[in-house]
Amino acid sequence: MGGSDTRGGSRNLILAAMIFAVAMTFIDQTIVSIAAPEIQKQLHLTSTGTQWAINAYLLSLAALFAFGGRLADTAGHRKMVTLGVILFAGASAMCGLTPKGSLAEAWIVTFRVIQGAGGAIMFPAALAIVVQTFELRERGRALAIFFGIAGGLTAIGPILGGYLTQWTWRAIFWVNLPVAAIALILIVISKPSTVHRPARMDYKGLALIASGVALSVFGFQQSSIWGWSDPGTWACIIVGAALLVVFYFVQLRTESPLIEVRIFKIRPFLVENIVLGIAMLVFIPVFFFASEYAQIALGKTPSNAGVYILYFFIGFVIAAQIGGRMLDRIGAKRPVVLGCAISAVGFYLWAGKVTGLDFNTQQWYIIIAGAGMGMMLGPASTDAVNRASRLSYGEASGITQTVRNYAASLGLAILGSILVSQVRSHVTKSLISLGEPAARAHREASSIAQSRGGSGSTASIPHFVRLDFAQATQTVFYVMAAIMAAAAIAGMIGLRAGVQEETTQATEAETA
């Protein structure tokens, strides 16, 4: 059956259905962080509980993506998209209905985990449907639209969150319900038809990868709370990584594995996942750090902070279309390498302007950073999935999404630690220069750093703290520039020029 099989509906309608299906997962990666202070206040959550209201979703998503991809390939892609949408929407509704009182914390964290599980089941299946619906030569353009809109929704999350929270924080979850309804209606109308193969589920592999990813990501997430010197942080990361190594070797000996790990012998698949892993250290974290900078250093409201991030989205969406067309015409290498390089330049120039505390001098550099990311993200993801057999598209997309989410968690932890360290250092120096004793200055700076510039209204934050936070953000953005430069080098060295040809399972064994 050819990739252009469109029985029961047009390809564009199928693409629209899949975009609406995954839209919720991308919005929810960032929307809750904006509403977190209001959620904590209204539900009387602890700081740890609030942190978990954000992290539980990302953790569940990362841990179960591989399972979702395998399930889609074995049980049917349309069935899993539908199940995932229903599960995600149902959990969203329940999050919005979180009761006040002693049940609140356990309630919202539990349903955030279920949201993540719904997303992990839905996304690989949706991506596999898009890949199977479009011929190889048209896939770049189709997935540029898919990833362009999806990536843009990640940026829109904070904007939407800011405005909805002014009405009620519960609306940030309820907004998913009409989106889910549209997705389900479009799925029924378009009737996407794909190939899948029934097979036994590898529950041993599932337990190993879910535990390994969850434990190590948990360690990265908790590093900002426990600190890198805490043995618990390193115990979680090391044990989690060890379980992933065990998972790899168990999969090699399993007859019907959860992940066919030999797919990493396909050189372009391996390289694209390396590039994606490096780039994702930056992509999700930039929304969090840019939002904090806009609110603390520039004194913007949450909704206006979202508008600040919108400039990144403008560059992203426009360049995503260019990158997709380049992929179809000349292959993945040029848009991936060029996109990473452009993004590195954008972050470098952006970093140079943040300490001026003037948004108007930053706009074009934010657009450039977003454009580079948009140009490379779709082609890298598409090229990786294209390397799989038609019967393994869900599995391949599950692998790439696991890599992306794992790297995003690592990026948030590492870059977050750099930010806290830099804020502490700059604020300590400022307080000492204002006459504070060194010991007291260090204690106050540590408190300010952990609260990301202080609590309460941004109007109450002293100007020197705003400037110190901007200087710390500048360091983070310079590191992001270096990370994107490293991704460009990895793509330059590892990828080959040229358009990919249709392949079969037999011919995909290229490893050179």
The averaged pLDDT comes out at: 85
Which parts are unreliable, with pLDDT below 50 for 5 consecutive residues or more?
A: 1-9, 504-512
Radius of gyration: 22 Å
CATH superfamily of the largest domain: MFS general substrate transporter like domains
Profile the largest sheet: none
Q: What percent of the residues sit in helical stretches (DSSP H or I)?
A: over 70%
Number of domains: 2
Task: Lay out the secondary structure.
Layout: H1 11-43, H2 47-75, H3 77-96, H4 104-133, H5 136-167, H6 171-174, H7 176-190, H8 203-226, H9 231-253, H10 267-296, H11 302-330, H12 333-353, H13 363-386, H14 393-433, H15 438-450, H16 463-494
Helix pairs in contact: 1-2, 1-3, 1-4, 1-5, 1-7, 1-10, 2-3, 2-4, 2-8, 2-14, 3-4, 3-7, 4-14, 5-11, 5-13, 8-9, 8-14, 10-11, 10-13, 10-14, 10-16, 11-12, 11-13, 12-13, 12-16, 13-14, 14-15, 14-16
Describe the structure.
- This protein has helices spanning 11-43, 47-75, 77-96, 104-133, 136-167, 171-174, 176-190, 203-226, 231-253, 267-296, 302-330, 333-353, 363-386, 393-433, 438-450, 463-494.
- The protein has 2 domains: 1-201, Growth Hormone, Chain: A (Up-down Bundle); 259-505 and 508-512, MFS general substrate transporter like domains (Growth Hormone, Chain: A).
- Residues 1-9 and 504-512 have low confidence and may be disordered.
- The two termini are 29 Å apart.
- Helices cover 78% and strands 0% of the residues.
- It is built from 16 helices and no strands.
- By secondary structure, it is mostly helical.
